[in-house]
Amino acid sequence: MSQVFRFSVVRFFTAASCAAAFVAGQPSSAPAQAAASSILSESPAYAVVVDDIAAKVGTHTVLRVTLRPRAGYRILKAYENRVARFSAADDGVAFDAKMIRGEVEGGSLVFAIGVTPTKPGKHPINGVFRVGYIEGSNDLSMVSLPLIANVTGTE
Q1: pTM to 2 decimals?
Q2: Within the chain, which residues score under 50 in pLDDT?
Q3: Rounded alpha-carbon distances, angstroms, from residue 144 to 40, 43, 57, 71, 115
Protein backbone atom coordinates (compact mmCIF):
# COMPACT_ATOMS: atom_id res chain seq x y z
CA MET A 1 0.00 0.00 0.00
CA SER A 2 1.46 3.34 -0.98
CA GLN A 3 2.22 6.00 1.62
CA VAL A 4 -0.03 8.54 -0.14
CA PHE A 5 -3.01 6.16 -0.16
CA ARG A 6 -2.46 5.13 3.49
CA PHE A 7 -2.20 8.80 4.53
CA SER A 8 -5.45 9.65 2.67
CA VAL A 9 -7.33 6.80 4.34
CA VAL A 10 -6.08 7.82 7.79
CA ARG A 11 -7.07 11.47 7.15
CA PHE A 12 -10.53 10.38 5.99
CA PHE A 13 -11.22 8.26 9.07
CA THR A 14 -9.82 10.91 11.40
CA ALA A 15 -12.09 13.55 9.84
CA ALA A 16 -15.07 11.20 10.00
CA SER A 17 -14.38 10.45 13.68
CA CYS A 18 -14.17 14.16 14.51
CA ALA A 19 -17.43 14.86 12.67
CA ALA A 20 -19.19 12.00 14.47
CA ALA A 21 -17.95 13.24 17.86
CA PHE A 22 -19.16 16.77 17.06
CA VAL A 23 -22.64 15.60 16.02
CA ALA A 24 -22.93 13.28 19.04
CA GLY A 25 -22.11 16.16 21.38
CA GLN A 26 -24.80 18.47 20.00
CA PRO A 27 -28.10 18.73 21.91
CA SER A 28 -31.00 17.06 20.18
CA SER A 29 -34.02 19.12 19.25
CA ALA A 30 -36.28 16.09 19.82
CA PRO A 31 -37.08 14.63 23.24
CA ALA A 32 -34.87 11.67 24.13
CA GLN A 33 -37.79 9.31 24.66
CA ALA A 34 -40.88 10.46 22.80
CA ALA A 35 -44.09 8.61 23.45
CA ALA A 36 -45.43 6.54 20.57
CA SER A 37 -48.47 8.77 20.14
CA SER A 38 -46.32 11.89 19.83
CA ILE A 39 -44.07 10.25 17.25
CA LEU A 40 -47.12 9.38 15.17
CA SER A 41 -48.61 12.85 15.48
CA GLU A 42 -45.46 14.59 14.20
CA SER A 43 -45.99 13.70 10.55
CA PRO A 44 -46.24 16.92 8.57
CA ALA A 45 -48.72 15.48 6.07
CA TYR A 46 -50.80 12.97 8.02
CA ALA A 47 -52.41 12.61 11.42
CA VAL A 48 -52.32 8.91 12.36
CA VAL A 49 -55.34 7.61 14.27
CA VAL A 50 -55.04 4.13 15.77
CA ASP A 51 -56.89 2.52 18.66
CA ASP A 52 -55.61 -0.53 20.49
CA ILE A 53 -57.82 -3.62 20.11
CA ALA A 54 -58.62 -6.75 22.12
CA ALA A 55 -59.81 -10.18 21.06
CA LYS A 56 -60.01 -13.67 22.49
CA VAL A 57 -56.82 -15.68 21.93
CA GLY A 58 -57.11 -17.48 18.60
CA THR A 59 -59.90 -15.18 17.35
CA HIS A 60 -59.32 -13.14 14.22
CA THR A 61 -59.94 -9.38 14.42
CA VAL A 62 -59.16 -6.28 12.37
CA LEU A 63 -57.08 -3.31 13.50
CA ARG A 64 -58.24 -0.21 11.61
CA VAL A 65 -55.73 2.60 11.25
CA THR A 66 -56.64 5.92 9.64
CA LEU A 67 -54.23 8.46 8.16
CA ARG A 68 -55.94 11.84 7.81
CA PRO A 69 -54.26 14.45 5.61
CA ARG A 70 -53.47 17.67 7.46
CA ALA A 71 -54.48 21.10 6.13
CA GLY A 72 -52.70 21.88 2.85
CA TYR A 73 -51.98 18.20 2.04
CA ARG A 74 -53.78 15.66 -0.13
CA ILE A 75 -53.46 11.90 -0.53
CA LEU A 76 -51.32 10.82 -3.47
CA LYS A 77 -53.85 8.30 -4.77
CA ALA A 78 -51.64 7.11 -7.64
CA TYR A 79 -49.02 5.87 -5.15
CA GLU A 80 -49.17 2.37 -3.65
CA ASN A 81 -49.97 3.57 -0.12
CA ARG A 82 -49.27 0.62 2.16
CA VAL A 83 -48.25 -0.66 5.56
CA ALA A 84 -45.86 -3.59 5.96
CA ARG A 85 -42.96 -5.00 8.01
CA PHE A 86 -45.26 -6.08 10.83
CA SER A 87 -43.89 -7.50 14.04
CA ALA A 88 -45.00 -8.20 17.59
CA ALA A 89 -42.62 -7.66 20.48
CA ASP A 90 -43.26 -11.12 21.94
CA ASP A 91 -44.66 -13.10 18.97
CA GLY A 92 -48.09 -12.87 20.61
CA VAL A 93 -49.84 -11.75 17.42
CA ALA A 94 -50.20 -13.40 14.01
CA PHE A 95 -50.71 -11.12 11.00
CA ASP A 96 -52.91 -12.04 8.00
CA ALA A 97 -50.57 -10.56 5.40
CA LYS A 98 -47.07 -9.14 5.05
CA MET A 99 -48.39 -5.98 3.40
CA ILE A 100 -51.73 -4.15 3.40
CA ARG A 101 -52.74 -1.48 0.89
CA GLY A 102 -54.63 1.56 2.10
CA GLU A 103 -58.10 2.43 0.84
CA VAL A 104 -59.30 6.01 0.40
CA GLU A 105 -62.45 6.49 2.50
CA GLY A 106 -63.99 9.88 3.17
CA GLY A 107 -60.81 11.79 2.32
CA SER A 108 -58.58 9.62 4.55
CA LEU A 109 -56.38 6.57 4.02
CA VAL A 110 -57.74 3.57 5.92
CA PHE A 111 -55.76 0.40 6.57
CA ALA A 112 -57.55 -2.77 7.73
CA ILE A 113 -54.90 -5.00 9.31
CA GLY A 114 -56.04 -8.52 10.07
CA VAL A 115 -54.55 -9.89 13.31
CA THR A 116 -55.03 -12.86 15.62
CA PRO A 117 -53.73 -12.80 19.21
CA THR A 118 -51.87 -16.05 19.88
CA LYS A 119 -51.18 -15.51 23.60
CA PRO A 120 -53.09 -13.86 26.43
CA GLY A 121 -52.02 -10.37 27.48
CA LYS A 122 -51.09 -7.06 25.90
CA HIS A 123 -48.81 -7.34 22.86
CA PRO A 124 -47.11 -4.27 21.34
CA ILE A 125 -47.03 -4.43 17.56
CA ASN A 126 -45.42 -2.25 14.93
CA GLY A 127 -45.09 -1.79 11.21
CA VAL A 128 -44.09 0.82 8.67
CA PHE A 129 -46.44 2.92 6.57
CA ARG A 130 -45.12 3.97 3.17
CA VAL A 131 -47.46 6.67 1.88
CA GLY A 132 -47.47 9.52 -0.58
CA TYR A 133 -48.93 12.99 -0.40
CA ILE A 134 -49.33 16.16 -2.42
CA GLU A 135 -48.54 19.51 -0.82
CA GLY A 136 -49.91 22.60 -2.46
CA SER A 137 -50.58 22.29 -6.16
CA ASN A 138 -47.87 19.90 -7.32
CA ASP A 139 -45.23 19.01 -4.68
CA LEU A 140 -45.29 15.19 -4.48
CA SER A 141 -43.55 13.35 -1.64
CA MET A 142 -43.38 9.86 -0.19
CA VAL A 143 -42.73 9.23 3.50
CA SER A 144 -42.33 6.36 5.95
CA LEU A 145 -44.28 6.54 9.20
CA PRO A 146 -44.29 4.11 12.12
CA LEU A 147 -47.28 2.02 13.08
CA ILE A 148 -47.34 1.46 16.85
CA ALA A 149 -50.31 -0.19 18.54
CA ASN A 150 -51.29 -2.87 21.05
CA VAL A 151 -53.28 -6.05 20.52
CA THR A 152 -54.57 -7.64 23.71
CA GLY A 153 -55.34 -11.34 23.81
CA THR A 154 -58.13 -12.24 26.25
CA GLU A 155 -59.09 -15.66 27.57
Answers
A1: 0.71
A2: 1-41
A3: 11, 9, 31, 19, 22
